[in-house]
Amino acid sequence: MPSFQLCLSILETTSQIGMVRSTNESSLTGFILLGFSDYPQLQKTLFIIILILYLLTILGNTTIILISRLESKLHMPMYYFLSHLSFLDLCFTSSVIPQLLVNLRDSMKMITYGGCTVQLYVSLALGSTECVLLMVMSYNRYVAVCHPLRYTVLMHPHLCMILASMAWLSGVATSLVQSSLTLQLPFCGHHQVDHFICEVPVLIKLACMDTTFNDIGLFVAIVLFLVVPVSFIPVSYGYIVQDILMIKSACGRQKAFGTCSSHLLVVIIFYGTIIIYLQPSKSKYKDQGKFVSLFYTVVTPMLNPLIYTLRKKSLKGLLRKF
């Protein structure tokens, strides 16, 4: 009798494993990225606009990287972090836009399970890294304005390398944790992703089990990579404005404001759009959310090099020379 019960328990366990395996194997066929399927009349227009913006993003960010590396006058902390930002934007758009362009022209709008996995890991790592890097850049601006005489001592190359590495490692770490937890969920044969990119929030919605633990992990990541930087950056700029207002010379104040205006504008655009992650998951404005996501995925990486080159006379001069 005990052996019979043991056989039954083994059969039940085997069947459960088979069910989990079948749900996971059903997801291996891939996903359908619905994207902008509700707006078929816009897809051709979106394809042309996104393609042009993507080419401009590649051109602008590649130019910033080359100038920052090749021009000895720009071997300073501000342009060191700017080259990292350009490299991030270049990689982030390249992990998302090619698949988006294919889906805008393809009626099936399929992405393989492997492609979705790579996109999930890479885009989340790069997006999280950029959140931290913008915070690091605000600290660099704070030191430059509030402690100009000690700037070269405080922001020495070794510290800049540590800060940049910290941004990259934190982004990779959160991507490994969040993406791995998400991919372990059983999707139970659901393949339609109501977005144009494989992201953690949209994939969690496909799961056919309790996702409380995943939701908590996502909330923690939002706090660490959105709330903390958004809280830190205004504080640093508060000290910057306070010091600028104490400058007696109008020319000096204008120069100090010009030093920070480019980064502040990039921060406002980036966080003003990515804040869509803080919306409730059952928001009625999911279509508007897609367009906002499209803005920070496509438009923001193209605007960053444009903003910095227009605001920096040194960069404009070097661009003319190149």
Give a structural overview:
The chain has helices at 2-27, 40-70, 77-105, 113-146, 151-154, 157-183, 200-204, 212-245, 250-274, 286-311, 313-321, and strands at 31-33, 110-111, 192-193. It is mainly alpha-helical. The protein starts with a helix and ends with a helix.
Q: What's the alpha carbon Rg, rounded to whole Å?
A: 23 Å
The main sheet comes to:
3 strands, mixed
Number of strands: 3
Percent range for helical residues?
A: over 70%
Arithmetic mean pLDDT: 81
Features:
322 residues, mainly alpha, 11 helices, 78% helix, globular, disordered N terminus
Give a short overview.
This protein is an all-alpha fold. The protein has eleven helices and three strands, in the order αβααβαααβααααα.
Please render the helix and strand layout as text:
Layout lengths: L1 H26 L3 E3 L6 H31 L6 H29 L4 E2 L1 H34 L4 H4 L2 H27 L8 E2 L6 H5 L7 H34 L4 H25 L11 H26 L1 H9 L1
Parallel strand pairs: 1-3
Antiparallel strand pairs: 1-2
